[in-house]
Description:
- The structure holds 3 protein chains of 3 kinds.
- Chain B is of the alpha+beta class.
- Chain B has 13 helices and 12 strands.
- In chain B, helix 5 runs parallel beside helix 13 and helix 10 runs antiparallel to helix 11.
- Chain C contains 12 helices and 13 strands.
- Chain C has a 6-stranded mixed β-sheet with strand order 5-6-7-3-8-9, with helices on both faces.
- In chain C, helix 3 crosses helix 4.
Amino acid sequence: xxxxxxxxxxxxxxxxxxxxxxxxxxxxxxxxxxxxxxxxxxxxxxxxxxxxxxxxxxxxxxxxxxxxxxxxxxxxxxxxxxxxxxxxxxxxxxxxxxxxxxxxxxxxxxxxxxxxxxxxxxxxxxxxxxxxxxxxxxxxxxxxxxxxxxxxxxxxxxxxxxxxxxxxxxxxxxxxxxxxxxxxxxxxxxxxxxxxxxxxxxxxxxxxxxxxxxxxxxxxxxxxxxxxxxxxxxxxxxxxxxxxxxxxxxxxxxxxxxxxxxxxxxxxxxxxxxxxxx
Amino acid sequence: xxxxxxxxxxxxxxxxxxxxxxxxxxxxxxxxxxxxxxxxxxxxxxxxxxxxxxxxxxxxxxxxxxxxxxxxxxxxxxxxxxxxxxxxxxxxxxxxxxxxxxxxxxxxxxxxxxxxxxxxxxxxxxxxxxxxxxxxxxxxxxxxxxxxxxxxxxxxxxxxxxxxxxxxxxxxxxxxxxxxxxxxxxxxxxxxxxxxxxxxxxxxxxxxxxxxxxxxxxxxxxxxxxxxxxxxxxxxxxxxxxxxxxxxxxxxxxxxxxxxxxxxxxxxxxxxxxxxxxxxxxxxxxxxxxxxxxxxxxxxxxxxxxxxxxxxxxxxxxxxxxxxxxxxxxxxxxxxxxxxxxxxxxxxxxxxxxxxxxxxxx
Amino acid sequence: xxxxxxxxxxxxxxxxxxxxxxxxxxxxxxxxxxxxxxxxxxxxxxxxxxxxxxxxxxxxxxxxxxxxxxxxxxxxxxxxxxxxxxxxxxxxxxxxxxxxxxxxxxxxxxxxxxxxxxxxxxxxxxxxxxxxxxxxxxxxxxxxxxxxxxxxxxxxxxxxxxxxxxxxxxxxxxxxxxxxxxxxxxxxxxxxxxxxxxxxxxxxxxxxxxxxxxxxxxxxxxxxxxxxxxxxxxxxxxxxxxxxxxxxxxxxxxxxxxxxxxxxxxxxxxxxxxxxxxxxxxxxxxxxxxxxxxxxxxxxxxxxxxxxxxxxxxxxxxxxxxxxxxxxxxxxxxxxxxxxx
Lengths: 278, 362, 341
């Protein structure tokens, strides 16, 4: 486990020293900063009376500030979820191919490291990165709005954690694909395909009705039953952020399922990795 | 061998993942999510409905410069035109189909100590659920019902029938109130006195100077709609929020009301007044009051009230504002469902209210 | 005690569409004693890199046995005692050398302070660039860093694939010095280099790989030296024409000659005759061939029809007992182990 953590931390250190990850952090900070300086929210007796952005009054309703913030948190949850997944798929596509690059993988495999530890560490590292990014964005937004309005809630942060778990499933697939063929493009394509298929899988019950009853519908159901329910978790994360009621047991089941999917994909990748010569 | 163990683990985990994800399918997102749809604009069917109802020929004394004289909605025309009057129209056909409407009808039957509306049909020849299209109630002590009433027998209510105007008739008895009336087969009236009904018939038959209806035709959308005078609204608030009631009297000229009951009950109140700044101030005061009320309800553990106020908001717009209020269906079920329970309790053992959800209907 | 032991080692890379894969190792047998400096030579595609990767568990053999430092390459404890420098080491560009070494140290489970890492960098001449990003390094600097990583934790076996590739001549001398220090510590050195002169200078044992088999293996002197031919140098003023009938063939105008003598007695008799003709002996050494000649000869012999069978028998001679058989031309080989085709 020490080695897995060491590999994960090395990946995070490597990412942290990459310019475009630094740029991402700076971008999020800049957005939050601009929002912090230009957004003014007038709260009177717990009600959001007026909102000004860049000095312009925004047409908003006068209502309890926590209720008024719900649509903002909901929208932010969707942005963090879908935007974060899309960005994560692109940004993290080359971590595994880079790990498996000729000249690097031989060096790593010659060290006292088990093969599975390398993949597990990479998976964990990327997951840590995704989580850190999501928490930074969601935490920053929560902090900003809390300072402006006095509403302190961890719900957007929880929503960001859901996005991170979902990304774990996508990245598991990307990692496995990289082991089969060392290509950042293939890795990104796998992530993108899982992302889109996962959106479809989230609406599988509704979409199944578009298929002819019988074999086509059964086939659609069978294929989508194996896919991570990306859109379901996106909606749930938005509900969570917007303080809408969420069925805890079903959410736990979905979360566990999607995390186990990620682990299954990693196990599949390790299976191939264990046999592979470099 | 070791790599085969990983493959086995992958397959087992994938199966487990599929099972876990399937458990949460269709349920992970909240089933309790309120689906409140606030009626802010007339929707397509409502525009068509309004057009279809304009069966009354244009007023003869309408502005001659207007080339195309508009046809009129008889029910809206029959209502008092005084701006100080409050009028609310209920779309009976829509309300009886709505979940909240069904509960309300149950309560109505319970209050009337009746098992079904058939008793009314037997006595007066009016099928409450089929014949009545709309019911309008005004603060001018007049209730108008529109629909198809070919077999209405109002004479069973009041002994004396008196014809009035070309198509009207009044049913009255000396010293008894209210007075009933009808106009053709499409309108029924219940008035505090004969004058109220006569005035309505006069408006329908163009015997008085035409005035714009208190509810314009374009504003006849929603499952219930109407206008409330500032005094009537202030009177409602007098007990609970005397400060707001006072400010409302001074700032507001009229409150336009629209209700959607298709799922939850959503209410939009458009508030207008002569001085834009006063209306804006009132909007802010009202928004803050709602917010404070919600905070208090939360602090006091009054979950239902807090939930109700959760959905309340004030949207200021250039010298007017709209107030959104919503009653979530579960909350209505909580309150009105007791009537159904009461009615069931009153039935003989083994006997069940027919029609399930719509048990009140028949 | 053997540092590396391979028996009947075969590796066939399965082709994606071809039924028959590509055979990289075809029954390789090799034994490298501990403390030896072994140089692996061979043409491109001979299977050198495959063999090295097999030693490290990076490539799994199709059949046969390979043992390193007495254990299997898959054994984490065994790999912890190996320092490896790959042919084209891919380094994280955004890191500093210290960060890279710290990462390798962590994966080797070594607890090393930054000062210790800086000392290691100083050993390979990189201490001045310790805080620079690796992305800005020259090829030689990267190679030095790779070597520093391989040396971390004082390994018992150093496997170096082209260690001086891209390094300037002075730098090569430094690396040679470094490897000599390591050898003095008792490290077994396994070197794969295309620079034959480098191999010649560093290694005391050589193996020549071709077609996935070891076709020559033995001590350097045994492979390059001749048992009956000697190189002599006479003082200026000797007459080459007078010496030629005695069997002294002039190599250059500076007084260098070669001669053949079957035994020490014959050699001394021959020298006596030369001195009798006025030649004054100033230098005597066994005649050594270039490694290039040995390689060319070995490969030629392997390619020749009559040598085909002999090629497979090369490694059969087993390891030498004399890992310290020095490279100095004056010294005689202790033993020729399977050196002849």
